[in-house]
Amino acid sequence: MKVIYLDNCATTRVDDEVFDAMLPYLRDDFGNPSSPHVLGKRARRAVDSATDSVAALLGASPESIVFTSGATESNNIALLGMFGHADRAPVNALFCPTDHKSSLAIGRALGNRGIDIRTMDVRPDGLVDLAGFAERLDVHSRVATVAWVNSEIGTIQPVAELAALSHAAGCLLHVDGAQAAGRVPISVAGAAMDTLSISAHKIHGPKGIGALYVKPEIRRRLHPTTYGGGQYELRSGTIPTHLVVGLGKACELALRRLDADWERATRLRATALELLTARLPGVRVNGCPHAGVPHILNLVLPGVRGESLVASLHSVALSTGSACNSASQEPSPVLTAIGVSPEDANSSIRVCLDPGMDEEELVRGIELVCERAESLADVVVAMQGAR
Ligand SMILES: Cc1ncc(COP(=O)(O)O)c(C=O)c1O
């Protein structure tokens, strides 16, 4: 049975062009890019060309790109690397409470080491409160970190403004761009960010590969977190040519499709929202749709438990929030941080669209979601009546 996939923030299908580009480097051209012989040179050329494609998507120079295993590792290399082992408060770092666990957990680890961790204020539309942000900065602020596009509600943070405020206080800005790549135009220089993480599997590339952009001027301020052969100063280990090639091709396609994908996602989102609001009474959008990407639609379906809905659908894949939080019984921390009540948060679902999907397929998927939501809501009403 074909599954209708509406969970494209958790991961995406590898694009056929990406898959085809990767294959030769698993078979015939399997050389180590650090080897001086003919196979090594072929692999090196492929890595260099993929680096150019990644740099082009980010508006960066190829020298500023470090390959990692994904956005989690990129966030770790950037954020841990900005602190020395002896650093303690008053040295501080600013974290955004609606960010992904791969940033928030680093904040907790730094806090346990004695760094002063400060939490940004987030408004009901999901945007960081800029006045509150400026107030939390001082001469001891080392780094502020924010996810450019929120993975649950799609809010696009004003990274250029956050970078300007950070720099005015002598603080660096790290940006988690895992959900931004392929969705918003990226210019690391334009937005003046210091470090930026991306991940291939969020943009139709393979799992297990990502990149970290490091502004050349701040490179010396980062300490490596692991040591080895020095393939990249900040991240050692044999370069996985096939994965790097996959990331490069995914970046090339993302850049080429950026504008068309935005338009298409906007149309698909309107279709999904129209169907859901017409059929299910009281449906509301979480966050502010005007401050977000059209690819992500987070909705309250009153009277329906989001987790029950997600688990009971056999031919539609969607989620209640970040895949990393889905094992937790707690309401989504992202939704509660923007003021959604625990009850509404538990009745919420996240639809993440692939702009390349068929509209008919989306309509069928939403119909199935509505059918199941109606039957689950009926069960709740019947149970309430029986009490
Ligand atoms: C905003 C954000 N940051 C980081 C990650 C982690 O990315 P990766 O799976 O590449 O480690 C995710 C994945 O969901 C994400 O949405």
Describe this structure in words.
This protein has 387 residues and is of the alpha/beta class. It has 2 domains: 4-10 and 257-386, Aspartate Aminotransferase, domain 1 (Alpha-Beta Complex), CATH 3.90.1150.10; 16-253, Type I PLP-dependent aspartate aminotransferase-like (Major domain) (Aspartate Aminotransferase, domain 2), CATH 3.40.640. It contains 11 helices and 12 strands. It has a 7-stranded mixed sheet with strand order 2-8-7-6-5-3-4, sandwiched between helices. Helix 4 (101-112) links the parallel strand 3 (92-95) and strand 4. The site of pyridoxal-5'-phosphate (PLP) has 13 residues, from helix 3.
* Low-pLDDT runs: none
| Main structural class | alpha/beta
Distance between the termini: 39 Å
Roughly how many Å is the radius of gyration?
22 Å
Q: Mind summarizing the main beta sheet?
A: 7 strands, mixed
Number of helices: 11
CATH architecture classification name of the largest domain: 3-Layer(aba) Sandwich
**DSSP, total strands:** 12
CATH homologous superfamily assignment of the largest domain: Type I PLP-dependent aspartate aminotransferase-like (Major domain)
Q: Please list the strands of the largest sheet in the order they lie side by side.
A: 2-8-7-6-5-3-4
Bound molecules: pyridoxal-5'-phosphate
What is the helix fraction of residues, given as a range? 25-40%
Strand residue content: 5-15%
Classify the fold: give the CATH topology of the largest domain. Aspartate Aminotransferase, domain 2
Under CATH at level 1, the class of the largest domain stands as Alpha Beta
Average per-residue pLDDT, rounded, comes to 94
Count of the domains: 2
Secondary-structure element order, N to C: EHHEHEHEHEHEEEHEEHEHHEH
How would you describe the shape?
Answer: globular
